[in-house]
Amino acid sequence: MSRLNYTFQAFQKDHFWLPVAVMGLFMLITLLMTGDRQYSVVRAFLGFTLPLLAGGLSAYTFLEDSALELQFATKRPAWKMIAERLGLVLFVIVFVSLTFQLFIQLLGVSLSPLGNVFQRQLVWFVPCLTTLVLGGAVSLMARNSNGGMAAVGGLWIIQILLRGWFAREPVWRNVLLFYGVMDPLGQPRILNQITLTVFSLLLLVAAHTLLKKQERYI
Amino acid sequence: MKKFLGVLRYEYSMSIRRRSLLVIMFLFAAFFIYLWADAGVQFQQREDDITQALLAEAAQTVFFLNLFFPVIVGVSSADRAVRDDKLGVREILRSTGLGNFVHVLGKYFGVAFSMLTVELVIVILISTILVTLSALPLAFVLYSLLAVMLISAPAIFFVTAFSLACPLVMPVRVYQIMFTGYWYWGNYLSPQVLPTVSNTLLNASGRFPMIAFFGEKVATNWASVSHTEAVANILILLGCAALALTAMIAYLNWREKRA
Asked: Over 80: is that where the pLDDT of B41 sits?
């Protein structure tokens, strides 16, 4: 518990307020919209914006800790550090997403086009998980938080702008972060979500291997 | 001038040697080349106006590269000024009598030129591949470089200025995330979806110069653009960059007075 408390304290506070502030902005925009445009804003927040937030914040979870060397001096397994740090970002993202969905329910906007309750959680959770692990893993690979953010930012902008091309290509659509939200009830989304989850796991293994080589970050 | 060139040279060499960011830029560029090859080069040689056709093709190549390249430029540049504060470099430089004006300008042009160099290398690489594979005239490489100067360079100068200035007053990661979102919202999102500046002269995607100077429209529903509008677009972007740098210098001066 004290370690979790340390992780919480070590995080910059914008890890917490930024997702909440962006959620507030989208809530405001939703209130200003009417009809189908409200659903478009909800879709934009859950399916497109949350993955960027998750990836951007996770890129800064490992290497910005000023006491990183002290952390390495303790005999803590790498997986615990990964779980604590990425877990905290994921917790914030999950909290923000669920709060936003609650707000949308209260507003009376139907989320049924995104499927049942379980399916609509997968629509945002799977891409968030992928960018979350990608941001962390690339920052460790690059030994630089900026590298992680550049990878997440570059991937996000390419995929959002070329999402039509990705969605049309039978192979490439499986790595499209936004396929779930673009085709929430289609059959190909299952393979897409499985592929993204497998990628996340592979990146997690890579992050674990990299974090064990502590001398790279000192 | 000597001090300015010294800062510029130092910043340029520091900025361009960041291997991890170079690797990421070239990886995305490689994906871009793959996309281009996969789509098949649609170049149609028109007997009557080969120069115009080549210019249009060069513009399109650079415009597509501009979809993501400025995002990586913005993210990469965001820590340049903040890093000086963190490492205490600014205090050391100030003790040498180097003013904030010269320091900021040198840093700005050093970072911007380093990013422009990377883009020029990528564009030369892509256009050489196209020249080789599609048997295009060698002039295509020169047209591509011209397209970089008119379509992409204003965006790089615009983005670099804000990426140096904004992180001084907000956390780097917040700026980087907001900037990535802005690049899509402010340049490519249709105003019918959300209120945006993408249809105004503040658009930094290079759409205005591409249509006006190269006669190329990627989407059929894009309106025509006059030469005056395209020049105004470039000048507005450069003007915004100048404003951001002026604000940055004023902020640094103010902070020093308070210290």
From this structure: no
Mean pLDDT (whole number) for B227-250: 96
Look up the domain containing B154 and give its range: 2-258
Residue A9 confidence (pLDDT) above 70 = no
DSSP 8-state symbol, A114: G
B160-167: average pLDDT = 95
Overall domain count for chain B? 1
Predicted pLDDT at B31: 86
CA atoms of B147 and B154, how far apart (whole Å):
11
Q: What is the ipTM of this complex?
A: 0.88
Query: What pLDDT, in 10s, does the model give residues A151-178?
Result: 999 999 999 999 999 999 999 999 999 9
Q: Residue for token digits 């700005």?
A: B108
User: What's the 3-state SS for chain B?
Assistant: CHHHHHHHHHHHHHHHCCHHHHHHHHHHHHHHHHHHHHHCCCCCCCCCCHHHHHHHHHHHHHHHHCCCHHHHHHHHHCCHHHHHHHHCHHHHHHHCCCCHHHHHHHHHHHHHHHHHHHHHHHHHHHHHHHHHHHCCCCHHHHHHHHHHHHHHHHHHHHHHHHHHHHHHCCCHHHHHHHHHHHHHHHHCCCCCCCCCCCCCCCCCCCHHHHHHHHCCCCCCCCCCCCHHHHHHHHHHHHHHHHHHHHHHHHHHHHHHHHC
Task: Delimit the domains of chain A by residue range.
Answer: 2-217
Contacts of B171 in chain A (CB under 8 A): 12, 14
CB–CB contacts below 8 A, A to B: 93
pLDDT value of residue A136: 95
Taking CB atoms and an 8 Å limit, are B72 and A53 in contact across chains?
no
**Closest CA–CA distance from residue B59 to any residue of chain A (Å):** 18
Amino acid at position B172, single letter = V
Q: In this complex, is the C-beta atom of A137 within 8 Å of any C-beta atom belonging to chain B?
A: no
Mean pLDDT computed over B167-172: 92
pLDDT tens per residue across span A72-104? 888 788 898 899 899 999 999 999 999 999 999
Nearest residue on chain B to A142, alpha-carbon basis: B20
State phi, psi for B196 to the nearest 5 degrees.
-150, 165
Which of A12, A60, A151 minimises the CB distance to B24? Answer: A151
Q: Which pTM does this prediction carry?
A: 0.90
- Chain centre distance of CA B19: 19
